[in-house]
Specification:
Blueprint: H1 2-24, H2 30-36, H3 40-45, H4 47-73, H5 77-101, H6 106-129
C-alpha cells in the first residue's frame, strides 16, 4: 500500500508539473485559455498571477518528488514520507480551497485533488499497517 501511495503521489506531481506548464508557458495561448476558460483579455490581465501560481504548483510537485525519492532510496524513509504528505497534502488542501470557494471551478478542483487525496489515503493506510 505504501508503494501505491507513492505511485499516486508521483502521478499527482506529474499533473502539477503539467498545470505549471499551462500556467507559466501557455496561459495566454489558445490551449491555456481553453483549459482555464479565460478570454484573451482576461488571460493578459491575469498573466502575472498565473505565473506565480504555476510556480507554486511546480514547488509542490518538487517537494512530493523529493519525498518519493528519499522514501525509496534512503534509510530515512520517514523523512521522505513526511515530504510526500506535505506536498500531496498541500495539493489536496489547495484543491479543497478551490472546490469550496469557486463553485464554477469544482470540476477543476476534483481533477486537481483526486490523485493527492488517493495518495494521502494509500500512504497513510500503508504506513499504519506497516
Amino acid at each position: 500500500m505504501i508503494i501505491a501511495g507513492l505511485v499516486l503521489a508521483a502521478l499527482a506531481a506529474v499533473l502539477h508539473v503539467y498545470i505549471f506548464v499551462l500556467e507559466v508557458f501557455l496561459w495566454t495561448a489558445p490551449r491555456g485559455r481553453k483549459t482555464f476558460g479565460t478570454t484573451e483579455d482576461e488571460a493578459q490581465v491575469t498573466k502575472s498571477l498565473a505565473f506565480n501560481q504555476g510556480f507554486y504548483n511546480l514547488f509542490l510537485a518538487i517537494v512530493t518528488a523529493v519525498g518519493i525519492a528519499v522514501a525509496l532510496a534512503s534509510e530515512h524513509a520517514a523523512v521522505g514520507h513526511a515530504l510526500v504528505f506535505a506536498g500531496a497534502g498541500s495539493m489536496l488542501a489547495a484543491a479543497l480551497v478551490l472546490f469550496l470557494s469557486a463553485p464554477d471551478k469544482r470540476r477543476a478542483a476534483v481533477t486537481q485533488g483526486t490523485l493527492p487525496l488517493l495518495a494521502v489515503i494509500a500512504l497513510g493506510v500503508g504506513l499504519a499497517l506497516a
